[in-house]
Amino acid sequence: xxSNTRANAYKTVHTLTVRGRDFEADVLxxxxxxxxxxxxxxxxxxxxxxLSESLRLNQRVWTIFQTDIADDSCxxxxxxxxxxxxxxxxxxxxxxxxxxxPEKEKLKILVDININLAAGLQGR
Length: 124
Fold this sequence. Notes:
This protein is mainly alpha-helical. It has helices at 2-40, 47-70, 78-100, 104-121.
C-alpha cells in the first residue's frame, strides 16, 4: 500500500514536471515566433512597435526563469544554475543592445536560443 502511494506521488510530480517543461517550451517557442516575425516584417512601418513588444515579452519570460533559478528552492545542480544565469545575462545585454540599435540580424540569436532550448525541454 505504501509503495503504491509513493508511486502515485512520483507519477503526479513527474506529470507536473513534464507539463511544466512543455509549458516552458511552448512559451519559448511563442517568443521565438514573435521575434522571427519581426525579422520577416522588418521593413514594414509598424515593425518598431512589434519589435519592442516582442523583445519585452521575451525579456519578461527570461526574467521569470531567472527568478525561478535564483530561488533557493531550485533543484537544478548549482553549475547548471550558474550556466543558465549566464545565458540570461547574455540575453538581457543582447536585448538592450537591440533596443538601443535595432538591427534584424541581431534578433536571430535570440530566436535560435529560444528554439533550441524549447527543443531541449521537449526532449528533441
